[in-house]
């Protein structure tokens, strides 16, 4: 969308907090609490996560982040677009920016986790070049987790 602006923000940014709260409410409707993986905003490592907010006509409508997994990969985290703004290219712009940033930082790929109830997200990832992989890290034993990766 032409009027969409992507802005890197600090973890404590109020627009980011608003969007993540919406995402968390949505996830807790779909999954039991032990299957919802949050970012601990009280942990000092949160400052190492690269967060962006998408603004449409100055209104915050989406967000996403990348977090270092290891020397080769980052993980896509807290990726969300408000439902009424989906299917307008905003999600792709967020992911594209995060992929560009990961490559700029020297990473070879992006991994992510989504839940098996999020069929729109699964379709989005597959359509945009992410292939399904074995569950990794904290998601390894989570029955509802589906994991994907894309080489950059």
From TrEMBL:
The answer to whether UniProt assigns keyword Transferase to this entry is: yes
* Ranges where the N-acetyltransferase domain occurs: 4-152
Record's keyword annotation contains Secreted? no
One Pfam short name = Acetyltransf_1
Q: Which InterPro entries is this protein grouped with?
A: Acyl_CoA_acyltransferase, Bact_Acetyltransf, GNAT_dom
Among the GO molecular function terms of this UniProt record, one is:
acyltransferase activity, transferring groups other than amino-acyl groups
Q: Which residues form a coiled coil?
A: none
The UniProt keyword set, sorted, is: Acyltransferase, Transferase
Protein's name according to its UniProt entry: GCN5 family acetyltransferase
PANTHER family documented for this protein: AMINOALKYLPHOSPHONATE N-ACETYLTRANSFERASE-RELATED, AMINOALKYLPHOSPHONATE N-ACETYLTRANSFERASE-RELATED-RELATED
């Amino acid at each position: 969308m032409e009027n969409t602006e992507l802005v890197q923000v600090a973890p404590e940014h109020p627009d980011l907090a608003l969007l993540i709260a919406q995402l968390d409410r949505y996830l807790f409707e779909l999954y039991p609490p032990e299957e919802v993986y949050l970012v601990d905003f009280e942990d000092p490592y949160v400052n190492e996560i690269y967060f962006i907010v998408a603004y449409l006509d100055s209104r915050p409508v989406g967000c996403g982040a990348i977090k270092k997994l290891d020397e080769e990969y980052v993980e896509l985290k807290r990726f969300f677009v408000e439902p009424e703004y989906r299917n307008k290219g905003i999600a792709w712009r967020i992911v594209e920016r995060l992929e560009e940033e990961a490559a700029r930082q020297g990473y070879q790929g992006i991994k992510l986790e989504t839940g098996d109830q999020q069929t729109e997200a699964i379709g989005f990832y597959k359509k945009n070049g992410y292939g399904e992989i074995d569950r990794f890290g904290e998601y390894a034993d989570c029955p509802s987790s589906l994991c994907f990766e894309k080489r950059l």
